[in-house]
Amino acid sequence: MVACHPSIVQPAAEKHSTRASVVPVAMTDTGDVSETASPVSAKSSPLSVDSGTAREPLPGGFHQKQRKTGFRKMMSEQSIQLPNVGSSKNGKLEQTTSSSSTSFSRRGATVSFHKIHYAVDIRCGFICKRKITHKDILIDLNGIMKHGMNAILGATGSGKSSFLDVLAARKDPKGLTGEVLIDGAPQPPNFKCLSGYVVQDDVVMGTLTVRENFRFSAALRLPMSVSQKEKEEKVQRLIKELGLTKVADSRVGTQLIRGISGGERKRTNIGMELIIDPPVLFLDEPTTGLDASTANSVLSLLKRMSNHGRTIILSIHQPRYSIYRLFDSLTLLAGGRQVYHGPAQSALEYFSEIGFVCEPHNNPADFFLDVINGDSTAVIRESLQEYVELDTEHDKTSRQSIEQRLVEEYKSWSYYKETKEELEKIMQGQNYSGKPKFHTITYNTLFCHQFKWVLKRTFRNLMLNPQTFYAQIGVSLFIALAMGAIFFGVSGDSSGIQNRMGSFSFIITNQCLNALSSAELFITGHQLFLHEYVSGYYRVSVYLLSKILCDVLTLRTFPAIIFGCITYWMIGYKAEAGAFFFFMLSIAMTAYTATAMTMAISADQSVMDIANIFISISFIFMIIFSGLLVNLPSIVDWLQWIKYLSIPHYGLTALEASEFVGLEFCDTRSVSSGRPGFNASRESVTICTSGEEFLTEQGIDYSTWGMWKNIVALGCMTIILLSITYLKLRFIKKFT
């Protein structure tokens, strides 16, 4: 059957409201939405539309008398119930893993927030004149969000994303006060791991298929007690219910790999969170980057989930009218303050009561933002004009005046007072301190289980990404052939010394520069790692160990082997097995250490350009003190210590000590004999210099320990740098 997108989807019905009954929405395999017939309640709110009639004008076209009557009736019938604590036990939120007939069927938790205040300190200026400015992001937010579609709406910079992060326990506790309760109980310390959070920018492995991503989430986020068969059934059920059947075995897509559409990608991100049946699903601006039709499809999916009892809380900037009608609860923010919190269907009535009338055929969401921004297109009553004068010269002052006026009107609203009373009842018996509690990360699986799945995914991503493994192999092969041709068959005279030194420096420098690619792989996966780590997928040690095995060993070992085998025999180094394997070990260890340094620098960086600056500066100083550009014994004493931090220094010294020992470099020169002018003759003289003499002049220890201590030094540096990488990842900023 051919499905069509509904122009209007009715909000969910509640027993104490006059809103219309829900039109059931079905999602086809392609993600399209279809409707089934449903009777409409006789008592329709101003936002309801009969399914059998043509679309009516937008709510702004209703008469003022009708607005007041419907609004007062709604307020008289509307009541706030104490949260349902059925989904919690002993005050602790439980994670359910039941295999219901539909993954969408779950009683959502009730989220209540009390006196939320969030502020940050902004540092500006230079070190000597640094100033710290205190800025309030969220100010005195109170309310209750039940199961259904709960939307947070506001202009850019209003604090809606920050508010969403506070509710999801993903905001930095520093500067945060207030209390967030789940089903009337304190927010669990591991709430981040129990709830679902869909970030604004999609974070999903693009080289894997939709099914593989779902399997990964199920394997790591569901308890070990859940059998593999149950996990597979859950994955298959989610694929079907999210309308992803046709693209289940298609790659999500990257910049170089064509993948699924934007709407399918967004639904894949939602499915990754639905694996654990979260009591609350948070979404940060889920329509960002989607066209109107795709955005409507995604929000219709969320509406269908909320109709099955889920609690969905989302921030959104400027939804179209067909999307706005899907909301059950609406929270309007202006400058970090609440100007409305209540039923979405009653928002227009409320604004009409306080003096703002929505124009006919105007989108309610656009109308609210116009009012908050002080836009002159909003119709303002004479009573409000006494307080505010909209003049272009005083636009900023006018906007602040309007925001203050809206806040005052909201706090004098009867529904706000009822909400405060209910919050006080909920808070009774709670040990309220007003200070944020420490949040922890918990895991449902063991270390070995996590390591198996993360290693498998990392290796598969490596093999399927053309810009990583295959590119590294191709570049190494090309450079090795070019270098072998340039230094082909080095001679045994004095020029052989120069050519050997030049080739050694080129080899070591090339291994260091190749390590720069690990920074890009590390930074591009930074957001994905942070999201999965905070959500309880795996431990930091699992992630880093998988990176080491797949990146350091694979991307550095195989290219180094190919590079070394070609260059060693083409250039004509010592034809000895021991010397060859020591050469291979030296360039491999140099590559490992350089990669470890790159990872240590980029571990806490989110911008590639900044990481490249620090890495480039480090390598420049290391190359200078490697012993090639300057004779190290001639360096002043107070700078001698820098050579011990130089990775190229150890690699170059190891190659020189291995290759020059046992070699002689002889030059034949023609010299004159006899007295000048008296039967002078020219003779050929051969002058030889041993490799040991050359190494002594360079200040290089060519003993057995002198060779191997460079390898030991590189190994110690690798361990230290990887430890720094782990500490950076372990204590990385986990909050926005």
TrEMBL record:
Entry GO terms, CC: apical plasma membrane
Region of interest: Disordered: 1-104
Record CDD domains: ABCG_EPDR
ABC transporter domain boundaries: 122-360
Signal peptide: none
Pfam families associated with the record: ABC2_membrane, ABC2_membrane_7, ABC_tran
Location (main, coarse): membrane
Presence of keyword Nucleotide-binding: yes
Compositional bias segments (type: Polar residues): 31-51, 76-95
Presence of the UniProt keyword Zinc in the record: no
Keywords, ordered alphabetically: ATP-binding, Membrane, Nucleotide-binding, Transmembrane, Transmembrane helix, Transport
PANTHER family cross-referenced by the UniProt entry: ABC TRANSPORTER G FAMILY MEMBER 28, ATP-BINDING CASSETTE SUB-FAMILY G MEMBER 2 ISOFORM X1
Family membership noted in the UniProt record: Belongs to the ABC transporter superfamily. ABCG family. Eye pigment precursor importer (TC 3.A.1.204) subfamily.
Name of the protein this chain belongs to: ATP-binding cassette sub-family G member 2-like
Species of the source: Astyanax mexicanus
Gene: ABCG2
